[in-house]
Amino acid sequence: MVQHNGLRKMTLADTVAVHSIDKTVTIGPWSEKLYQDCIAVGYECWVVVANKNVVGFGIMSVGANEAHILNIGIIPQHQRKGHGQKMLQHLLTQAKTQGVEKVFLEVRPSNTPARELYKKFNFVEIGIRKDYYPPDENGVGREDGISLALSL
Ligand SMILES: CC(C)(COP(=O)(O)OP(=O)(O)OC[C@H]1O[C@@H](n2cnc3c(N)ncnc32)[C@H](O)[C@@H]1OP(=O)(O)O)[C@@H](O)C(=O)NCCC(=O)NCCS
Hints:
The protein is an alpha+beta fold. The protein is built from four helices and seven strands. It has a single domain, classed as Aminopeptidase (3-Layer(aba) Sandwich).
C-alpha cells in the first residue's frame, strides 16, 4: 500500500487497531463500526505506521469548501515524537488539495496536548459548545467543547 511519510489510508482491517488506540487515549472512544462507516462514506481516514504497526490515526470529513477534523489519536508510547503533527499537517494538505478554505474541530478545554498542537498550527477559538462531550457510562467526562477554526 502507498505510504506518505509513514502515513497511509486506513483500511477496514485497521479499524480494530484504531479502535484499540482510541480506547487508550480518549474518554468516550468511538465504536469500531463508526470507523468502518467513516471509511465507507469516503472521509479522509489515515493511519500512522511505525515498524509496520499502526500507532495512530486521523479522520476528517470534507464538503462544501469546509473540512472537519473529527478525531486524531496517537498511542501513548509513540506520543511526543511528531506523529500527531505529521498527521495534522497531512490532513490539512489533503483538505487544501480538495479546495477547502476553512477547517473546523472541537477540543476539550482540559486537553492541553491537543490544544497546544492546534495552537502550533494557528487554529483560533471561535466558540464554546456547551456540554459537547457527554459523560461516559460511569458518568465521567462531560465537558464543553472549544470550537477551533483555521483558514487555509
Ligand atoms: C494530541 C495528540 C494527537 C498529539 O500527538 P503527538 O504525536 O504526541 O504530538 P507531536 O509529538 O506531533 O507534538 C506536536 C505538538 O503538539 C503539542 N503537544 C503534544 N503533546 C503535548 C503535551 N503532552 N503537552 C504540551 N504540548 C503537547 C506541542 O505543541 C508539540 O510541539 P513540540 O513538540 O514542538 O512542543 C496526542 O497527545 C493524543 O493522541 N492525545 C489523545 C487523543 C486526543 O486528545 N486527540 C485530539 C482530540 S481533539
